[in-house]
Each structure stands twice: as C-alpha cells, then as structure tokens.
Design a protein that fits this description.
By secondary structure, this protein is α/β, with parallel strands linked by helices. The chain is about 40% helix and about 15% strand. The strands form two sheets. Strands 2-1-5-7-6 form a five-stranded mixed beta sheet, with helices on both faces. Strands 3-4 form a two-stranded antiparallel sheet. β6 and β7 form a beta hairpin. The longest helix is centred in the last third of the chain and has 22 residues. The protein starts with 7 loop residues before the first helix and ends in a 7-residue tail after the last helix. Bound molecules: uracil. The site of uracil has 13 residues, from α3.
C-alpha cells in the first residue's frame, strides 16, 4: 500500500489489485458486512467455495458458522465477517484444491491489511476464530484453549474462540455437539461483551 487507504472501498481496491502472497490464490475474498458493527469475525483464509463465490464463509465451515450465529441470536447481516489471509492457499491433489494452512510469514504479510480493515470498520468487538486469526490480531501466537474468551487486541476489545472447521473435524457426534454448544456460548459471550460501554469504538 503506497498510501494508507482512507476508506474501506480504497482498502478493498488495494487488496483486489495486489498479487496473492500465497500459492494457489487467484482472486482476493474481501470482508463483508456493515461499518460499526457489534462484532467483526475474523477467520483464517477463504476456502475453495469462498474462492469460487468470492465471499467469506460460504462453504461447509460457513454453513456451520451460520447455524451457530442463528442459535446465538446473531444476525449475520448485522455483523462484519472477514479473514486474516485474503487469498485461498491450496495444493492440488488431482483436480481437487486442498486447503493449505498459511504460515506465520504469510499471516504477517496480510496483517497490515487486516489492521487497517479493523480501523476502518470499527467493530465494538473483534472475534478471532482460531489460531491463524489470533496470530494476525495479537501479532504473536496464543494457545486457543488457554486464552479462549475475552481479550484485548492492541487496545481493541477482542474475543478468542475456535475456528468452526475444527468442529467439523470432531469424529464423535457427542463430542461434536458439546463443542458446538461451547462455540455458540462463546458467540453469545462476545455479543454480551460488545454491549459493554468500554467496547465503544
Ligand atoms: N474458513 C475461513 O477461515 N474462512 C472462510 O472464509 C472459510 C473457511
């Protein structure tokens, strides 16, 4: 970015025109949602479906996220949703594009955009979904299990929870249900946090 973008539109134009920093990614998947929301959710990176449709969280993890948001009484249209890394990193197996985890250097590269994005969107609470989002928002790695819950990202009210795709990987149905309930409860807690005066943007 030669010049700091003054609006989200300027930032998104810069992101859309920049060359992907990860192998595989072709087009950028931008954040979506209103300015000044109660919550901004930050995921890791777009997946196959997100890359094809050009929208964040519209694949399997997105469907699960939608269900959790509905159970927590949160309207997806009223919050902001984005990713730490703006391009889909993948490796090919035959014709299948398999998700490849972004490394710390790649997450750091995209971090400047995410910080500017959050400064422009001004959510009351930023919710990190999983370790890559935590690394991007905190600037260093934190264990999710030990840091789950309220936090502070550089003076901004924050909340740490799991990535919805981690729930999809749980084999036992009973365990998956329990993890889903805990995820819903985290979203409820993040919403409560956003209602507190100290989180005013
Ligand atoms: N996983 C993410 O982290 N982000 C998406 O947009 C989809 C899946």
């Amino acid at each position: 970015m030669a010049q700091e973008p003054k609006s989200l539109k300027d930032l998104n134009r810069a992101i859309s025109h920049a060359r992907p920093f990860v192998t595989g990614g072709t087009k950028a998947v931008l954040g979506e949602g209103p300015l000044h929301p109660d919550l901004a959710l930050v995921g890791e990176q777009p997946g196959d479906q997100e890359d094809l449709q050009g929208r964040p969280f519209v694949g399997p993890a997105g469907k699960l996220l939608d269900r959790a948001l509905a159970e927590a009484g949160i309207d997806r249209d009223e919050i902001y949703i984005t990713n730490a890394v703006k391009h889909f990193k993948y490796r090919l197996r035959g014709k299948r594009r398999l998700h490849a985890k972004p490394n710390a250097g790649e997450i750091k590269h995209y971090r400047r955009w995410l910080k500017t994005e959050m400064e422009l969107v001004k959510p009351r609470v930023v919710v990190a979904l999983g370790a890559s989002a935590v690394l991007a928002l905190a600037g260093h790695a934190l264990t999710i299990s030990a840091n789950r819950g309220r936090t502070d990202f550089d003076g901004q009210c924050g909340f740490i929870t799991v990535h919805p795709s981690s729930l999809l990987r749980i084999r036992e149905e009973k365990d998956r249900r329990a993890a889903f309930r805990k995820f819903v409860s985290d979203l409820e807690k993040a919403k409560e946090f956003a209602a507190e005066a100290r989180c005013a943007a």
